[in-house]
Amino acid sequence: MGRIKYQTKNSIKEKIGDNIVKIRKSKGISQSMLVAKLNIIGCTVDRFAISSIENNHSCDINLLADIKDVLGCTWEELLT
To answer: What is the pTM assigned to this prediction?
Structure first.
């Protein structure tokens, strides 16, 4: 019988930051551009906050949903 593999909160958090960087760069979007796009949709955030998230610090789920929408990616792309 196989072992059940699960992800810890920290491993998921690390993937989210790395995935945001990967997706953002693949679309040619800088951190400043991401901040501007988020501000346009009414999300008050600065580049320091985006940098913090990309460096695997905590992120509010609402902000994460806005980032997902602005980057045009799926939850699966963001979380795995």
So the answer is: 0.83
